[in-house]
Design brief:
10 helices; five-stranded mixed β-sheet; Nucleotidyltransferase, domain 5; binds zinc ion; alpha/beta; binds 5'-O-[(R)-(carboxyoxy)(hydroxy)phosphoryl]adenosine; single chain
Length: about 325
């Protein structure tokens, strides 16, 4: 079974072909990605209308490129998968429209994928894929969740952010510091030059006794510090605040992940989503997990942020376990799924 997957939920157009294997872990044949970051940078964030228009421009050429790289003819595709949600409605509609049109023209079924399930399963494309069950830390721009994962589709939510997501905390703090978009990578780069101990930032819900997160207070604390410094702010102040912000976010993510491992008694942790690309988060999780004989799995760095490979993969893994693709799911996108 060959699955073509299309991702267009936000500011990356991703297309991929995966092929099911007898092991139950599909193989990636090829993937291609176009990031709109440069286009949105001037506005300090994603402009939904521009995102939709750019997906329209990119998706067909990327599909052609991926099929050529995979050495697969369109007629050989068995199922066309797309991101059904959550995401920007107009952006999702582009991927859904193209996927459903292609499928209809080919007489093949379509399969709508939950974007977060794509992230969650993306480490299965790594050279050392995890085994079930595991604890998953899902950290993206819109979500921060800890989950117990027993199998594909068997997810138990252990805790989540009650306000901002971890990626959002990175992005909003970076904006307050006048850094570029997306904030996570730029803030992390600047933090390398800063002294985190120069500022004491809050770690809300750290001792709440549950696995929920809260990052809105952190953003407020960053704003307060930035306002206090006013026009006197120098590059070193900015680097120090960036370092303290990153440390606060990473500290909470690591401690809650360890608490989730303790609570479930599991010895495997999977980290997925854009913030999973953060070097400090990886280093600290690796160190804490090594102490506890816990194995940590990450997606390949290039597949941490949005991509088509994870969407094709999630569809193939679901279909291999009995999910049935449809012919009538058309434009049923779910922006707030
Ligand atoms: O998973 P993703 O690509 O998109 C969503 O589904 O949201 O995640 C994007 C988020 C953004 O908030 C971005 O700032 C953050 O991931 N991010 C990072 C890093 N790379 C991306 N945050 C911290 N450190 C990074 N290196
Ligand atoms: Zn994402």
């Amino acid at each position: 079974m060959k699955v073509l997957g299309v991702e267009s939920s936000c500011d990356e157009t991703g297309v991929a072909v995966v092929e099911a294997t007898p092991t139950g872990v599909p193989k990636l044949r090829a993937h291609a990605l176009h990031s709109q970051i440069d286009m949105h940078q001037a506005y300090g964030g994603v402009v939904p209308e521009l995102a939709s228009r750019d997906h329209i421009r990119r998706v067909v050429p990327l599909t052609r490129q991926v099929l050529a790289e995979a050495g697969v003819d369109l007629a050989e595709i068995d199922v066309v998968a797309f991101t059904r949600g959550p995401g920007l409605a107009g952006a999702l509609l582009v991927g859904a429209g193209v996927a459903c049109s292609l499928a209809a023209a080919l007489g093949k079924p379509v399969f709508g994928v939950h974007h977060l399930e794509g992230h969650l399963l993306s480490p299965f494309l790594a050279s050392d894929p995890p085994e079930f069950p595991f604890v998953a830390l899902l950290v993206s721009g819109g979500h921060t969740q800890l989950m117990r994962v027993d199998d594909v589709g068997q997810y138990e939510l252990l805790g989540e952010s009650i306000d901002d997501a971890a990626g959002e905390a990175f992005d909003k703090s970076a904006k307050l510091l006048g850094l570029g978009y997306p904030g996570g990578p730029v803030l992390a780069r600047l933090a390398a030059f800063g002294d985190a101990s120069a500022y004491s930032l809050p770690r809300p819900l750290l001792h709440s006794g549950n696995l929920d997160f809260s990052f809105a207070g952190l953003k407020t604390a960053v704003r307060t510090q930035v306002l206090k410094l006013g026009t006197n702010v120098c590059e070193q102040d900015k680097a120090n605040i960036a370092a303290a912000t990153q440390e606060a976010i990473v500290d909470v993510l690591v401690r809650k992940s360890i608490a989730a491992l303790k609570q479930t008694g599991l010895r495997r942790l999977v980290v997925a989503g854009g913030v999973g690309a953060n070097t400090m988060l990886r280093e600290q999780l690796n160190a804490q997990c090594a102490k506890r004989q816990v194995r940590v799995h990450y997606p390949e760095l290039a597949l941490c942020t949005d991509n088509g490979a994870m969407i094709a993969l999630a569809a193939a893994m679901r279909l291999q376990r009995g999910a049935v693709p449809g012919f009538d799911q058309g434009f049923d996108v779910r922006p707030r799924w």
